[in-house]
Amino acid sequence: MTSVGRQTFLVERYAADLSVDQLLLAGRRAEEAASMLAPGARTRYLGSVLLHTDEMAFCLFEGTSEAALRAAVEQASFAFERITPAVAVSGRSRTTSGTKETPR
After folding, report:
1. How many domains does the chain have?
2. Domain containing 23 — which CATH number?
3. Is CB count within 10 Å lower at the N or C end of the chain?
4. For the CA atoms of 76, 88, 63, 36, what is the dihedral angle to 10 degrees?
5. How far apart are CA 94 and CA 87, in angstroms?
């Protein structure tokens, strides 16, 4: 579930030789960088999908803004192709921009 005032973002990155451990570490570094850049602009790494065959990784983050997330991933040397606002779907609910919706 996304926290109030925060959005979910998908960060696409090229991942030719990226391991699962390296991906987890990169996500944690982005979280740490966000807390150093601006205490109120927190970023939380939610997880990733790694596609070795396509050499891509799709990383989910929660943050206060796209600009704050971009600054955090750049500060953490987290290479990426693009950042896109996203809707995270998990189980029977979806979360977007601080609200949780449950299908009827």
Report:
1. 1
2. 3.30.70.3090
3. C
4. -30
5. 7
